[in-house]
């Protein structure tokens, strides 16, 4: 369930604060008669009360998400078991029909006819039956632009060991948050069985700007320590530098470790500054991190198989195209209005 549907992407608000409002709004209010302005102030007080009620609404939505997560989990556990090959689904569980399959069946018949002659000439080799669904999560990472941008070639052998991704919601009475859990099978890269990323959320109007409230927003995140095997840490790389002694003129070679691009930097995020002050690059990096966490929670984990097959990607692209078309129409309308204005211009006036 997406608690933010219909309210914009609250889970991806920038960490630096709220959007600036045009000064014209404040100027408009200053032009009102005193008696009218007084009534507008009364409406604003009502609006703040509405925002407080809305915050409570989202708190209850969070509780509903937590409740239904326990109903989804057995299905997600079954998905994990099929992906890893722990369980082989029954014929009945594998029954599925789609429009595409009809086209695929026709193509398959043609392939069979073409292969008939080859089968007569040479003995057919038994078809290899891989365990589970190989590279299930890695395929998703490589297919989704938001994740593939983080993915490096040296990350891929590690992500082949990723068994499952789960979302855990904070318990009742605890501050609102959700945790992404990345479950790995034993591997030669690190000792952790689970890597975690906690996203802390807030669902209350800002006291200094209550009208900016649009639902829960991620306000901070916390990664985990990865217990890398010696020489396997892909988040750093070793470089060699030559140093020349000023007095003797002798040269020596020194090695040092420097940060390296890797998906696994995801588990060592930038921390939100206590005073809220951050440079532009850090603010952008953190906002992107929040967006990725939100995407894992709302899209990737609930609909993993559709991202694996590419069907969810087609849906996302269709949605983006529809938004783009609407935007183009608005621009054309504005251009049309400008042309009308030009038509009314009288050079003799």
Automatic annotation (TrEMBL):
Instruction: Please state where this protein is localized.
Output: Nucleus
Tell me which GO cellular component terms the UniProt record holds. Answer: nucleus
Output the superkingdom of the source species: Eukaryota
Q: Which InterPro entries match?
A: NAP-like_sf, NAP_family
- Alphabetical UniProt keywords: Nucleus
BP GO terms, sorted: nucleosome assembly
Region: Disordered, residue numbers: 1-31, 89-130, 312-349
Report the sequence similarity comment from the record. Answer: Belongs to the nucleosome assembly protein (NAP) family.
Protein name, as recorded: Nucleosome assembly protein 1-like 4a
């Amino acid at each position: 369930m997406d608690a933010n549907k219909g309210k914009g992407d609250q889970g991806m608000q920038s960490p630096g604060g709220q959007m600036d409002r045009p000064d014209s709004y404040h100027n408009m209010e200053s032009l009102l008669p005193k008696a009218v302005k007084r009534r507008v102030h009364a409406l604003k007080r009502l609006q703040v009360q509405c925002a407080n009620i809305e915050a409570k609404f989202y708190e209850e939505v969070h509780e509903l998400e937590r409740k239904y997560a326990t109903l989804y989990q057995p299905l997600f556990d079954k998905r994990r078991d099929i992906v890893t090959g722990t369980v082989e689904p029954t014929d009945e569980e594998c029954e599925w029909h789609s429009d595409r399959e009809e086209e695929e069946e026709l193509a398959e018949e043609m392939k069979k006819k073409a292969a008939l002659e080859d089968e007569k000439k040479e003995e057919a080799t038994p078809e290899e039956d891989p365990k589970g669904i190989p590279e299930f999560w890695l395929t998703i990472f490589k297919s989704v632009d938001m994740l593939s941008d983080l993915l490096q070639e040296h990350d891929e052998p590690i992500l082949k060991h990723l068994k499952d991704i789960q979302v855990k919601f904070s318990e009742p009475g605890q501050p609102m948050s959700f945790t992404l859990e990345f479950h790995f099978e034993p591997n030669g890269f690190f000792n952790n069985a689970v890597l975690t990323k906690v996203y802390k959320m807030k669902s209350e109007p800002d006291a200094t700007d209550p009208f900016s409230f649009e639902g829960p927003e991620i306000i901070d995140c916390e990664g985990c320590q990865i217990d890398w095997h010696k020489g396997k840490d892909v988040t750093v790389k070793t470089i060699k530098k030559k140093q020349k002694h000023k007095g003797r003129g002798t040269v020596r070679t020194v090695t040092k470790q420097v940060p390296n691009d890797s998906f696994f930097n995801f588990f060592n995020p930038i921390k939100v500054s206590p005073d809220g002050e951050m440079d532009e690059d850090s603010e952008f990096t953190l906002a992107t991190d929040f967006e990725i966490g939100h995407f894992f929670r709302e899209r990737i984990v609930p609909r993993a198989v559709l991202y694996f097959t590419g069907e969810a990607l087609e849906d996302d692209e269709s949605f983006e195209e529809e938004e783009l078309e609407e935007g183009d129409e608005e621009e054309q309308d504005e251009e049309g209005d400008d042309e009308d204005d030009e038509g009314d211009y009288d050079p003799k006036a």
